[in-house]
Amino acid sequence: MVSGALQIAGLLVGGIGMIGTFAVTGMPQWRVSAFIENNIIVFETIWEGLWMHCIRQANIRMQCKLYDSVLALSPDLQASRGLMCAGSVLSFLAFMVAIIGMKCTQCVQSSWQAKGHIILTAGLLFILSGAVELIPVCWVANTIISDFYNPLINVAQKRELGEALYLGWVAAFCLIAAGAIFCCFCRCWEKNRSYGYSSPTYYPTHSQRLQGKTEGSYSKSQYV
């Protein structure tokens, strides 16, 4: 009961992280225009994402345009595009492997030992996908903060942290947490399995005891 609930909890947390990863990859709010000093045009907001940039005017009208070329992106966004795609694929693969290896899933010609290895593989994939997602999110956030405090950069070109970065941190944490849950479950399951398969104590039955007594008395009578 407890092991099944733990697996379901890990699957739910991993599913949330996977959906969050997909959302972060497609969201344009990676970089948001900063309103500081003379940049007081508050009715227009600029969003910059991995695939497009958007201009939102007074919370009413929004126009988005795909980037004409990958070279139009900064180096951190170029790398982030590939890393986020890789993280999305890994999270989806980990989610599917976790479903296959769950205890409640009945597969043909499957053993508990094989499912334990599958669960461990799913946990490692979840942790790997979370780590891959953390790299671009932290990289872009560090670039934004460095440019914000750089006096050589024009105020109009400075950006703030967008909602996609915060969601990316949450999604990466969920993926790593799901991987830790599956890995811990697999480790605890192997310990219980090793303890449970100790050699059983042999107790003779009543008929076997009677047969032993009869054979013993018969052997003694032969010496008389």
From TrEMBL:
<dbReference type="GO" id="GO:0005198">
    <property type="term" value="F:structural molecule activity"/>
</dbReference>
<feature type="transmembrane region" description="Helical">
    <location>
        <begin position="122"/>
        <end position="145"/>
    </location>
</feature>
<feature type="transmembrane region" description="Helical">
    <location>
        <begin position="165"/>
        <end position="189"/>
    </location>
</feature>
<keyword id="KW-0965">Cell junction</keyword>
<keyword id="KW-1133">Transmembrane helix</keyword>
<keyword id="KW-0796">Tight junction</keyword>
<protein>
    <recommendedName>
        <fullName>Claudin</fullName>
    </recommendedName>
</protein>
<dbReference type="Pfam" id="PF00822">
    <property type="entry name" value="PMP22_Claudin"/>
</dbReference>
<keyword id="KW-0472">Membrane</keyword>
<feature type="transmembrane region" description="Helical">
    <location>
        <begin position="81"/>
        <end position="101"/>
    </location>
</feature>
<dbReference type="InterPro" id="IPR006187">
    <property type="entry name" value="Claudin"/>
</dbReference>
<dbReference type="GO" id="GO:0005923">
    <property type="term" value="C:bicellular tight junction"/>
</dbReference>
<keyword id="KW-1003">Cell membrane</keyword>
<comment type="function">
    <text>Claudins function as major constituents of the tight junction complexes that regulate the permeability of epithelia.</text>
</comment>
<keyword id="KW-0812">Transmembrane</keyword>
<dbReference type="GO" id="GO:0005886">
    <property type="term" value="C:plasma membrane"/>
</dbReference>
<dbReference type="InterPro" id="IPR004031">
    <property type="entry name" value="PMP22/EMP/MP20/Claudin"/>
</dbReference>
<comment type="similarity">
    <text>Belongs to the claudin family.</text>
</comment>
<dbReference type="InterPro" id="IPR017974">
    <property type="entry name" value="Claudin_CS"/>
</dbReference>
